[in-house]
Amino acid sequence: MFDYIGHYGPLISFFLTGYSLLNRKIYAFVFACGSFLNLAINMWLKAIFREPRPQHPVKFIDSDDLVGSNSYGMPSGHAQITFFSLTFLLLTKSPILWIYIMTCIAVITVYQRWKYKRHTVKQLIVGAGIGIFSAWIIVMITDTYLQDIISHK
Predict the structure, then answer these.
(1) Beta carbons within 10 angstroms of residue 119's beta carbon
(2) What is the dihedral of CA 143, 145, 151, 153, to 10 degrees?
(3) pLDDT higher than 90, residue 89
């Protein structure tokens, strides 16, 4: 079961984070837009770095027929997406239960990607770092913009 949670971690974290932000519509909208931007950044960085994934991956659900930017491992998209969601929840002061749930999903996801040799530790750390930084930038810009709107009223 944990392996499936790890494999589908980005999708699970996207929907759970989106759901947890439904009563905060601006953050929900920014999270959705930021998630797609975060994914685009991941694909762009993979195309630039072109660092291969580890050799001899363990078979699971996904096949070995990875094409395009997905054939590269740097940075880990799974780590980047799940840590983007976790950091977004932390920075928007979401309820602690959501943060605990998202922390578990992020840790399980990173472990699953390492266990099945889809990424190296370095690729996972870099992916998580980019996800954290992306969420921080997006929330900072959003909060600054919201402060400007509030102060002009």
Answers:
(1) 26
(2) -120
(3) yes
Q: Give how far the C-alpha of residue 40 lies from the chain's centroid of Cα atoms, to the nearest Å.
A: 12
Answer yes or no: is 63 within a domain.
Answer: no
Segment 5-61, tens digit of pLDDT: 888 899 999 999 999 999 988 899 999 999 999 999 999 999 899 888 888 777 776
Closest C-alpha to 81, from 61, 105, 97, 58: 105
* Number of independent structural domains in the chain: 1
Six token digits for residue 131: 């996800």
What is the Rg, in whole angstroms, of the alpha carbon atoms belonging to the chain?
16
**77-91 and 25-49 are packed helices; what angle lies between their axes, rounded to 10 degrees?**
150
Instruction: Report the alpha-carbon distance of residue 9 to residue 29 in Å, rounded.
Output: 20
**pTM given for the model:** 0.86
User: Distance between CA atoms of 73 and 119, rounded to whole angstroms?
Assistant: 6
- Could you list the residue range(s) of the whole structural domain that residue 73 is in? 2-56+69-151
61 within a domain of the structure (yes/no): no
Please indicate, yes or no, if residue 106 is contained in any of the structural domains: yes
